Queue: 2 jobs
Job 1
Amino acid sequence: MTAGYHEYRLRLIAMAPVHIGSGETYTAKNYIYENENYYFPNMGKMYLKLRQYPGVVEAFEKFLVNPSRRSNRLVDFLHQYKIMDRDFGGYKIPKTGHESARRGHLNEIHAFVKNGYGNAYIPGSSLKGALRTILVNEHFGNDNIAWGGVDDIFNEIRVSDSEPIPVDKLRIVQKWDLNRKKFEPKGLPLFREAIRPQTRIDFTITTTTARAEKLIDQLPQMAKRFYERYERQFLCDFPDKYVQPNHFLAPLYLGAGSGLWTKVDYGHVDLRGIQRRSYKKMKLKGKGVMKLTRYKRQSLKRIENGKQVKYMLINNDDHYYEMGKCGFKLQKKN
């Protein structure tokens, strides 16, 4: 075996909702809210089924392309034509009760990335980006980093896509911002499909050189140091009740909505430049707001000294989580 060639299993545990976007969005024309569920039908299968109803297909085509219709909700269209069939494939996501929506009606919902079989998954590139942030901050610092061309150290660290994640692990969550002045979370009309807390997701990391192996061996320790840096730089300005404990896991933030300071190179970040380039309505003020979302209170359980111990994921009674908060365990396979 080539020196430095090793495989690791990284088990990621979602400690808060996590969103990896596919770039697609669902509008009210693409989903049905009924019976406390958001149903995302297979639109192709729905079209074929509607062909059984005379005149409906033509109306359906107009419904999809005409933005000026009085009703733009798919559920209203089906009710109008008295179509009770809901066997259109696709999947359902149960309502959590923490979406601040009027009777279940949301704005656009940002879709989670899915594979060709319809299962959610986390691309290896997403996790690798989070690991790279940790390594750049805690190992390389201001040093010249060996990347680019044939001497790219990150080419020597390969991260697989995750194992498939069943869609029953998905929930719809809302974006909440917490600023430093009022410390009152503000709900925004932005909704995402997200992996629910407690979900466990496995990846394989492969190193191909000794220097890459050395880095990955130290990854959990560096993740903890990076979290301490993030805590000093940003989290310490906010009430403790909104900051989630790490418990027995190495901390990591993943996906959209976790905030600027979970993703940047602290040694080279140009905060003023970011502020200048931001759109006026989205202008970064100070260090920015804390990124939250809401979900029911959950806990992690594990056996310690022969007894089951429960670790609560949040420290508040208002169901606020840090968006994208995860923990991980790393095991060397060989």
Job 2
Amino acid sequence: IGKMCLQLAANHLEGGKGDFAILSATTTSTNQNTWIEEMKKQLKDFPGLNLATTVYGDDLADKSYREAQGLLTSQPNVKVIVAPTTVGVLAASQAVKDAGKIGQVYVTGLGLPSEMAGAIKSGATKEFAIWNPIDLGYSATQIAYHIVKGDTDGAPGSEIEAGRMGKIKVGDNGEAAMADPFVYNASNIDEFSKIF
């Protein structure tokens, strides 16, 4: 997720260069904090990107909106707000629109197509990502099938065949990551916003 968020930020910037800020959930959100740490580690692969600051909206729409407003005034060099939270990405998109900053500041991160369709259409974001529920459901079904069939026990380190999704490796903690999140943009937002 960290690398995907950086790529999304770079895609919003001319030449992939410029300042970005992160609008996350809470300071104790395990997933978001893991993704932010991964973003920081991966920054070396994105030499044009500069992380200006990280703020927290506590996964509350009104607080996330206010934090995004604060970024727009306190961080004038920030050209992209990355929100690895569906609440934050939607709130930040609205803040950019309300401030009349469309085309000057972009928002990206993890969002739901049904909620973010307006942000794509307004230009507040060019693209964002989240897991494709069709692929996620397919993968879960494939994994369950192979466990029930006895092809695998799902032990840490094992690989499970997941049909068109390829092989999925079970991590040391017993969890398995499907693949990179799916990217949503003007070419597919209408289709997916009807699904979820």
